[in-house]
Amino acid sequence: MTEGQPGTWPAPSRGNDLAALLARVARGDQAAFAVVYDCAAAQVFGLVSRVVRDLAQSEEVTQEVMLDVWRTASRFDPDRGTAMVWLMTLAHRRAVDRVRSGQAAAARELRVAASETSYDVVVEEVESRLEAQRVRRCLGSLTELQRESVTLAYYGGYTYREVAGLLGVAVGTVKTRMRDGLIRLRDCLGTDQ
Amino acid sequence: MRLRRQVPHTLAGAYALDALTGRDRMRFERHLAGCDACRQEARSLREAAGRLAAVTAATPPPHVREQVLSEAARTRQRPPLTVDGRAASGAGRRAARLRAPRMAVAIVGGCMLVALVLGGLFIDTQHRLGQEQEHNRAIATVLNAPDAVMTSARAATGGTATVVMSHRDHALVLTTARLQALPSGKRYEVWLMGRHRIRAAGMLPQPREGMTAPVVVSGVAAGDMVSLTAEPAGGSRSPSSAPMLTIALPA
Lengths: 193, 251
Description:
Number of strands of chain B: 8
CATH class of the largest domain in chain B: Mainly Beta
CATH superfamily of the largest domain in chain A: RNA polymerase sigma factor, region 2, helix turn helix motif
Helix content of chain A: over 70%
Radius of gyration of chain A: 18 Å
Number of domains of chain A: 2
CATH topology of the largest domain in chain B: Immunoglobulin-like
Largest sheet of chain A: none
Mean pLDDT of chain B: 74
Number of strands of chain A: 0
Strand content of chain B: 15-25%
Distance between the termini of chain A: 21 Å
Oligomer: heterodimer
Number of helices of chain A: 9
Radius of gyration of chain B: 24 Å
């Protein structure tokens, strides 16, 4: 992907490529799976390591997620959503499951500092950067409490009750801020074409 | 939207963020089962939440790829769901239910390239990295810094600039959206305004779709301000006009 392709992003057809690859993966096509890995690994690993923090565990969870993709590709239904959100849903779920298991939480506390810069971080692709820009800008349109509630839950892997504790506000307040924040984010991202 | 109970419905956001556990989640899923509109909202919020992953991309070490591919070759795949069937695994079930429509097509951009490769058209995927890699690494370092904070400001002439800054790295990443177009021969120049001096911090790239690619500014100190002025395309030694936008960096 080069800078020399203006106007091709975001192209709705792009999502279909990953979906088509998943259909091949569902039929046992290992070459297609390797391509899906190359497409999605940075997104998966980036999200997982943001939530889990610990490098070794992030690698493990990334492997689990990608193997989930291999095993359950037949369950992906392109009529009901795009392939990347299906993948990121698997990844986020796996990541929060990992940090919520007690042992992992302890290890995470101990090892978080050491792991901050220990892996090779590369933001992929011009398109991804533009999307990232857009997401950050839309996050910027949330109120502070909405943004903190959403990001602590998503990137931090905290439950809404934990988020309430971290922010020192009522549980009910956090609930509504998460919902209002995501609605605002959705509307900002959706109309920002 | 008709709601039987107000209380569970407000959990839609927390649910989409995977921030519900145990009984809270079960109660909410029961609620969803009986409410089409709620399922639709939950799906759209899941979609929004999924896009938050766009800012965290990081390449895993190469050995992960090898392990995943060799493990996959040894792992039996699940059959597709039959009509109204249910997936056996927790993850599969969840994913099947939560899939969102029209999702983040943007973040799969790279797949176009690799799909072409798979189709037989050879493209050297490493080629694109080269000199951009250092730049990307610098951006990623700031964005992934534990103390990264974001702030943005609106230009008097329209458009916004957003800064993500890390005190740890003494660096910031600047992006802009929909700034007023400048006459030809003029470009936006970035300035870092400290307490004692003003430093040129580079030219903004030409916008694409109204947005400029991230610019990294290093050597940033607490209390500095970032501003933009219109300058000759080659840049100026000092600002030749009043800033069109100024961002006070978070302390």
